[in-house]
Amino acid sequence: METVTIKPKTKKVRRRVPFFSEIIKNKTFYAMMLPGLLFIIVIYYLPMMGVVIAFQQYNPFKGILGSPWIGFKNFEFLFKSDALFQITFNTIFYNVIFLILGIGLALVFAILIDSNGNRFLSGAYKSILLLPYLLSWVVAEYLLFSFLSVDRGILNQMLHFFGIEPVSWYSEPIYWRFILPAAYVWKNVGYFAVIFAAGISGISTEYYEAAKMDGANRFQQAIKITIPMLMPITIILILLQVGKIFYAAFGDWGMFYNLPKDSGILFSATNVIDTYVYRSLKVMGDFGMSSAVGLYQSVVGFVLVLISNFFIRRYDKDSALF
Amino acid sequence: MMKRLSLSNFFVNLIFIVYSVICIIPLLILLSVSFTNEQSVFQNGYSLIPRDFSLDAYKYILMGNSPIIRAYGITIFVTLVGTLFHLVISSMFAYSLSRPEVKYRNIVSFLVIFCLLFSGGLVPWYILLSKVLHLKDTIFVLIVPYLVSSVNVMIMRNFFRTIPESIIESARIDGSGEFNTFLKLVIPLSTPVLATVGLFVAVFYWNDWFTAALLIENSKLYTLQFLLQSIMNNIAFLQGNSLTVKAAAMQPDETARMATCVLAVGPIVITYPFLQKYFVKGLTLGAVKA
Amino acid sequence: MNKKKIVLSLITAFTIVLSGCSTDKSNNASTNEPQKETKVDQPEGTGEKALEPVELTYYFPNSPQKDLQTVEDAVNKLIQPKINATVRLKLIDWGTYEEKMKVVLGSGEPFDLAWTSTGLNNYYQNVANGSFAPLNELIDKYAPETKKGIPDMFLNALKVKGEVYGIPVFQQSTAGYGFEIQKSVADKYQLDWKSVTKLSDLTPFLETVKKNEPNLIPWEYAQNLDPFLTAPPMFGLETLGDAKTPGDLYLNDATKVINQYETPEFKEYITMMRDWYTKGYLRKEAPTLKETTADRKAGKNALTLGQIDIDSQAYEAAGLEFTGRMSNFNKDVHSYDMQFVKPLLTTDKAAATITAISANSPNKERAMMLLNLLNTDKEIYNTLVWGVEGKHYKKVADNRIEGLPEGGYQIFAPWEFGNMTLSYLADGDPIGGEVDNKFIDMWVDLNKNAIPSNALGFVFDFTPVKTEKANVDAVIDELYYAISSGSIDPEKYLPQFLDKLKNAGTDTILAEKQKQLDEWKAANK
């Protein structure tokens, strides 16, 4: 076997190694990579060729090879639309809020839960926090509706009980600027919190013991130890979401459609790129047009990921995506 | 760690209790409505405790269509097998990407991220699975398309990086091969992330109805979610269409939808708390350090 | 984990289906160069006894049925001796059908028969894509009896450039329009419901209900019941293509395409609705309601829009007992149904339910033979539609049955297959209607004598204006229901709505529709 010298982790020794030598040198690793890589190529990259549909008048019967090319015509409807500013603004607005609130609150929750001495309560809180994530938005819609329904909703029943006028939640766009972030957090904070909790459990207790001996209280411990140690995973999560910045709710846009019950009056606050496209195209079913918008969203996200990744690399090489 | 019964502790717990209540109440309503008589729901709206207890909704679903028992079986099998293989493939992949010695790791990481952002769409995906790979109407089509996830690979990769290099080095010195190191050393240290990712994957497989809807026609291979979703969709659809509105009238509606949700989510909600022990903090790491 | 795809398509399937499917909301599409693959011209196989056994695949939507296999076996037992073929019934649930057929057709997978319509799995769009086989020759050769059983104008409505690509199911398609009123309400307040001739006549009734019956909803409204979109003839209009997109015709002037939202009729209508809404005749949430089954089941609606072919008075005249359409949802709620707009046969009604043969089918002749059987053989038809006697239903009179729900097969879809004149009468059909075929005769007459629309058979291809249509549809989704349910002030919002429509390209669409209409008229002289 090779003799191993203990090298510090930071600098890689650069040698001019041709492709095959590299593979042979690290053959175990490349072998381990193989199934995953193969899988990605077949399941994700092969169908990706279909993205050319965005530039075609796609005819299912003629297929990709037979359908006529129409250049950028499929992109027209989005860019000619009156609503373009509104939907783009909404998409980004909500995504940024979701990112900050979702990840921020999840960090806080994870730290708080972890610091709770009672192991049972800890576990219980984590389980409960995650519960909403397990539901589908369709279910969530029913639940929200049961809260907010003007005629029968629980919230209005409660207000009525206190002698306050029932509120018409589904008629005023402004409420939704708060309802939607709240709903997103309710549903997703558990997912992030569980990831952070897993990260925290990977932090050696030695650090905390040392800090305590130095007289740090819990708050300081959190700021000085936990958060920095969680930075890498946080950055990764943020970067991964950034790629989907133009996809409403990072891809899970059902919320924008179902929660407001597809109500036109609320569009100024609830219409995002994905819902707009969905509504415009559901009657026509034009594959090309929906593909075009998807391509547009992907390209924007991709550029943003490239840029952010570039900056993250300068800050901490290991935290970057690539 | 000292347990301090301070004001801050109390507040923290209070916040969590309130939040927990917010999370749980909707689910209790779900449960309650599913056990309520249909008419009562129409007349009185939703409530926390069923006003008119009734098993109609469950009867309708469980007696109704294709064998639900078999669908449970299929789903359980797919979830367990799928999650296992996903973890195996993804963790190997992630580990190899986390090793600094691997020269091409950044290129491959890029490939992993890129395909997360770009997609060809539904029809090419379908053509791949049915025409090219001939997986249509087999149990494999429920498992295979989801065996690797870019997000999970990245999360795991990062986690593996936090494992101290010294541990790996000492294993090498002791003569352990890379794969052996991975298996005997790294994996046991990674239970938190494996459990976390495993949970998400399992939830995904469990909730997936879409694959079956498009790619399974053999009723023996129907998954639970697909059956339940069909019921829910059918009810909604029938109501919206004047041709079928008569048929819609015959079926319980709101309560059936709620019952569907309970049946769909129930098993997960119940089993998850038992997985808690895998999320335990730093024990294993500390032990090895010594 | 492609969460995005999952949710996207889940929501797509779920909601496409929820909203896209009234019989009169059609989305007619292109008529550009349908592929004419006449691979059918094989001299052999016509009536020759040497038919090889063949298995046909038949896709159709319905709710999942536990006992489908028994029915399939029973049907196969009947058809095999006749055409030496068996059929595999691929029942796809409603919520998935659209998506499923999209990928099946989009990937070119071979199958034989599929259900289609103007609403779901759009017939015209599929024809334009070349997905269906041309049938003129096949019909003449293998299904002449079928052809005889359907009035010509129905078949003509399906013609695209002279060729038919599907066989319409002959069923209760034409419907006039009117309203339904709860019997108890009408009787209690002695409301003169028989004298109503237009919607606004209902205002005093609604007022009475509002004043005296706090537990009832005076006027039922939901998106799928919007009078202007569902019943354009009520306003003297008829739709060209789908009801939402601008571009209708006046009933009495079939040459000029107009923007229905700019008409005085529309203004009058929304002003009336505004009045109704502010007076509290509608549920506060009316504009967001997609459907109202819950209210119907609870018997909460006092009056509602009706799509009615045969109304209460007609049944009375024929001596048949009829409890009214409201009783379909709640047995104890009887209604008087009244029709005050005569039935008009439009393209989307004639094409509401069709069976097509795939262009990729390896057994087109055999598929056509099966269709012929479904259209002419009473036993086969009823087995497919109602199931096996004794297990799925029991006979209560010569031509009438009662369903047995525990049997495991209840598709309630006599309108989905073959020819509905073959059907037994079942629950919900007027009592006594089975005697001497009275009921069936009634609606057959109605269909035969319906006034055909001036644009029957015209199909609008929106590909040239797809950009405008996408944006126009978005504007309509945003503002239409709020305006038409009366929940916002028309004085303020109607001008806004019209402006937005204009900016989105309404004029381009109107011009295109006019152009295509003129061409179609010239070609069909």
Description:
The complex is a heterotrimer of chains A (322), B (290) and C (525). By secondary structure, chain A is mainly α. Chain A has 15 helices and no strands. Chain A has one domain: MetI-like fold (Orthogonal Bundle), CATH 1.10.3720. Chain A has helices at 19-25, 27-48, 63-66, 73-80, 84-115, 119-134, 137-148, 154-161, 173-201, 205-213, 218-242, 254-258, 267-270, 273-281, 287-315. The longest helix of chain A has 32 residues, at 84-115. The model of chain A has no long low-confidence stretch (mean pLDDT 83). Chain B has a single domain (53-289), classed as MetI-like fold, CATH 1.10.3720. Chain C is built from 20 helices and 18 strands. In chain C, strand 16 (393-397) and strand 17 form a beta hairpin. The chains are: A mainly alpha (322), B mainly alpha (290), C alpha/beta (525). Chains in contact: A-B, A-C, B-C. The interface between A and B is large, with 103 and 105 residues.
Q: Give the helix tally of chain B.
A: 16
Tally of distinct domains of chain A? 1
SSE string of chain A:
HHHHHHHHHHHHHHH
* Radius of gyration of chain B (Å): 24 Å
The value of Rg of chain A in angstroms is 25 Å
* Greatest contact between two chains: A-B, 103 and 105 residues
In quaternary terms, these chains amount to heterotrimer
Round the mean pLDDT of chain B to the nearest integer and report it.
79
Name the CATH superfamily assignment of chain B.
MetI-like
**Envelope shape of chain A:** flat
Number of strands of chain B: 0
Anisotropy-based shape of chain B: globular
CATH class of chain A equals Mainly Alpha
Q: pLDDT under 50 segments of chain B (min length 5)? A: 281-290
Residue share in helix of chain B: over 70%
